[in-house]
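User: Some background: our group keeps a shared notebook of sequences we're curious about, and every so often someone picks one and asks for a predicted structure to add to the entry. Today it's my turn. The entry only has the sequence so far, pasted here. Could you supply the structure so I can complete it?
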Amino acid sequence: MTTVEAIEAAVKELSPRELTEFRRWFAEFDAAQWDEQIEADAQAGRLDALAAEAMADFASGQAREL
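Assistant: Of course. Here's the predicted structure to add to the notebook entry:
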């Protein structure tokens, strides 16, 4: 059994209260992982082209307020 399969099996055994707690924890964990990845990508310059494109669109009047 793989680790993922073991986790899936364990999650299936959680009580409704435990499942709620797990969902909350996982949402926080996942958001933190996402934030770390975005920060790493920004520092490595992987988002520079997207930022430049957005700035060019704004400068040319192609942007609109949301």
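Suggested note for the entry: The radius of gyration is 20 Å. The chain has a mean pLDDT of 95.
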